[in-house]
Amino acid sequence: MRAAISLGLLASLTAAGAADVIKLSARKPTAPLKRRSLQPTNVPLDDFFLNTDLQWYGNITVGTPPQELTVVFDTGSFTLEVASVQCGSACSNQKLKYDPSKSSTYVDGGQQTTLAFGTGVGVDPVVNNDYVLTVETGTDTVSVGGYTVENVDLYTIVDQTPKFNLDPFSGIQGLSPEAQGLFQGLVNQGLPSLFGMYLTAQSVGGAELTLGGIDTSKYSGSLTYTDLASSGGNWEASASSIAVNGQTSSNLNSNQVFIFDSGTSNIVLDPSLADDANALISPDIQPFSAEPGAYGIPCSKISSLPAVIDFTFTSQSGNAFNLTIPSSELNVGPFDSDNSTCQTLINSLSGTNIIGGSLLKHYYSVWDVGQQRLGFAANGH
Ligand SMILES: *[C@@H]1O[C@H](CO)[C@@H](O)[C@H](O)[C@H]1NC(C)=O
Ligand SMILES: *[C@@H]1O[C@H](CO)[C@@H](O)[C@H](O)[C@H]1NC(C)=O
Ligand SMILES: *[C@@H]1O[C@H](CO)[C@@H](O)[C@H](O)[C@H]1NC(C)=O
What we know:
By secondary structure, the protein is mainly β. It is built from five helices and 25 strands.
């Protein structure tokens, strides 16, 4: 959901991934795989909008009989978390909660842990400890888009920090490039190992996740692919330069790795990049001290500012291509603590570069797990 780059989560999942690899390589080849192929399936998405587009989320069911829940499909995390009925007032906004005791297929994992998420949405600041879930481990049957996977690892949320309680959805479904959990279960059943995302502004509507394929009706022109920069479990690609209104700086004009995160609404850059990019938009954009990592400007000054941000990537065929955020994304709304100051698009967090929904909603995006690449085309609206 937000964001969801959790360092703790990353570490524990790396360990789990390594164990999987060992298990697979030790397994003796058995009969040839007889896969029945599953057709791609479209999952409609709702937009959580609060001054700006924050998150896109859709329906899943968990349990037997199925309990309907909503989750953010979050390319910046790995696992499935859903609010449980055990989470009381801390989950008061999550109208749809999962009751494991009413599911005949739930298996209690018997462990409690916390998951910390790294960034927030909208006018939220980027600071630690704002986004922490207290969860219990378990497995259950999960359905999405008409397909069902049994024994999916999941976390039931039994407590959460207040920032999470703003959310209108029940949880988060991670969709990292290391297929795991629900997505891996679908791939095991023969679903092609990729998904397409059509994340749109609320005014456009019709947002959609296509599991196992690409919805060619949702974009124009052709897809341009870039290789993932690493196999480290993030959707990350290298950009050679960032330009703001056609201008750059020595910091901005250098190779940097960017994580593409459908669960982060804005842009997060290392401070050296964020300071330069914000200065190129306006010297009036300044760090907002009450919310470390966030920047703001008097709301009266923001509407006329040009803020076109170009990220230059390299296609698989070796050509430069830009992914561009238009000026309309600059203003993400007034701060809660000072409504005459408007938060601007770019936040800073040391050592972290994240491209979120504010760019993704201007493109159709393809998240190709099997070929470890990301594809982009102009949104067809
Ligand atoms: C989720 O399911 C509910 C109830 O079936 C339905 O009203 C809603 O439109 C669905 N949401 C999306 C985004 O499809
Ligand atoms: C990308 O954007 C930069 C800065 O605006 C521009 O100089 C460059 O020509 C663009 N590259 C492409 C391939 O469009
Ligand atoms: C901004 O905050 C002030 C003081 O809390 C309040 O009186 C005013 O109505 C708010 N304005 C808006 C547009 O929310």
